[in-house]
From TrEMBL:
Known cofactor(s): Zn(2+)
Keyword field: Glycoprotein, Lyase, Metal-binding, Zinc
Protein's UniProt name: Carbonic anhydrase
Summary of the function given for this chain in its UniProt record: Reversible hydration of carbon dioxide.
Family named by the database record: Belongs to the alpha-carbonic anhydrase family.
EC assignment: 4.2.1.1
InterPro entries associated with the record: CA_dom, CA_dom_sf, Carbonic_anhydrase_a-class, Carbonic_anhydrase_a-class_CS
One Pfam family here: Carb_anhydrase
Length: 418
């Protein structure tokens, strides 16, 4: 029989992430069939607000099961949002129920997490991330869609991760998480700080045939994450996506985007990053993701950030906002850093996030300058002090001896009480 999405256990049978992209070519038909939801397990809580949703979900599933039986593969030509609705029933207001429907969401290796930079282990073995095939020609059209949870850009299989990981990974898609005009919306946080938004570029291990197969294996996925902040000036790469958002305001809508350099959506510095073992941050929350969180952030204009936060709508015709999952418990997991996270300049005046984010070379440079500056200051102070002592002593030698002994006595007493 055709392998189902997450066929390894029953709890995984209903559970493809909403942004799962069926692999192109021959696998596509198989995967589309595999994405059909099954009859619910009846473990659903039925408080008032959920009642209608559950009813409509059951109705949907029964209708779908019957029509699948009657019409067979003809079903695959149904509008895309019908298929999407089948497994988009979870929501960010509904976080507590995720682990009821998807057992992995209650696991001990969940994402996102807070990265405590002081607790991160410096690991010199973490090599710079290498991206290949990320620069796409304009005649290569990419599908961009609103799936009700985020905006997804499908990526061709030619994009690959060729460095930084022990194995090779192929890209499938990228998507974003954001907040609202009232607050930031990154998923990961750094030392408790949430950033305005976050990009995730999803890859799967080339030793598996497809994303859906890879995502159930512990070494299946690699996701690159970077934070988006507000700075001066438009970001031309993000513009390539943001300018199309108005075309896909409604759930299920999609449009085509001409190819561009996808690497431009990620930081220029791919050497500085955090690494840990975690999960998908949306149901089914499979704990199969090797995460890379870049230390350098991306800058978007204020306008661009507003566009991201206020363009798309959800199923219930609200603005799609604050689509992030809260940080999850580490449960003893280690977070590695490809760089020394506690440089000497950390608490020096004038050093801020943007300065340290520029990386090793610049912070060492700043460190050198500061060291010289403080060295010179110290030397000048010491010299002034010595001159002062010398002057004082030569003054004292000119005075009579009783005064001199009195001066010495005063100095000693001050020292004792200090
Ligand atoms: C992640 O899991 C793999 C396989 O269990 C393990 O070898 C590796 O050390 C883990 N990485 C971290 C950062 O804990
Ligand atoms: C980058 O690393 C520095 C040094 O550990 C840290 O202070 C800063 O918060 C980090 N920023 C991000 C976005 O990771
Ligand atoms: Zn994500």
């Amino acid at each position: 029989t055709a392998p189902r999405c997450g066929s390894r256990s029953f709890s995984r049978s209903c559970s493809c992430p909403p942004w799962a992209v069926p692999a192109p070519t021959a696998r596509a038909t198989r995967n589309t069939a595999a994405r059909s939801p099954r009859i619910p397990r009846g473990k659903e809580p039925l408080p008032g607000t959920l009642f209608l949703r559950v009813i409509s979900r059951c109705a949907y599933r029964i209708t779908r099961a019957v029509s699948l039986y009657v019409f067979g593969s003809a079903l695959q030509s149904l509008p895309r949002q019908w298929v999407l609705r089948g497994h988009s029933h979870w929501s960010y207001e509904d976080l507590k129920h995720w682990s009821t429907d998807y057992s992995d969401c209650g696991g001990t290796k969940q994402s996102p997490i807070n990265v405590d930079t002081a607790q991160a282990t410096f690991s010199p073995d973490l090599r710079p991330i290498q991206l290949s095939g990320y620069s796409l020609p304009a005649n290569k059209q990419l599908k961009l869609k609103n799936n009700g949870h985020t905006v997804v850009l499908e990526l061709p299989e030619s994009l690959a991760l060729t460095g930084g990981y022990a194995q090779q990974y192929r890209a499938v898609q990228l998507h974003l998480h954001w907040g609202s005009p009232l607050g930031p919306g990154s998923e990961h946080t750094i030392n408790g700080r949430r950033f305005p938004a976050e990009i995730h570029v999803v890859h799967y291990n080339t030793k598996y045939d497809s994303f859906t197969e890879a995502m159930v294996h512990p070494d299946g996925l690699a996701v690159l994450g970077a934070f988006l902040e507000v700075g001066h000036g438009e970001n031309q790469y993000y513009h390539e996506i943001l300018k199309h958002l108005f075309e896909i305001q409604e759930v299920g809508q999609e449009t085509l985007v001409p190819g561009f350099n996808i690497a431009g959506l990620l930081p220029a510095n791919l050497k500085l990053y955090f690494h840990y073992n975690g999960s998908l941050t949306t149901p089914p929350c499979y704990q199969t993701v090797k995460w890379t969180i870049f230390n350098q952030t991306m800058l978007l204009s204020h306008n661009q950030m507003s566009m991201l936060v206020s363009s798309l709508r959800t199923d219930d015709d609200k603005l799609l906002q604050s689509n992030y999952r809260p940080v999850q418990n580490l449960h003893g997991r280690r977070v590695l850093a490809s760089f020394q996270t506690t440089p000497l300049v950390k608490h020096a005046p004038g050093s801020d996030d943007s300065a340290t984010a520029e990386g090793h070379s610049s912070s060492f440079h700043a460190g050198d300058v500061l060291a010289v500056l403080f060295g010179v200051l110290f030397a000048v102070t010491a010299l002034a002090f010595l001159l002062y002592i010398y002057k004082h002593r030569s003054q004292n030698t000119r005075l009579d001896s009783p005064t001199k002994s009195k001066v010495i006595y005063t100095a000693a007493s001050t020292e004792n009480t200090a």
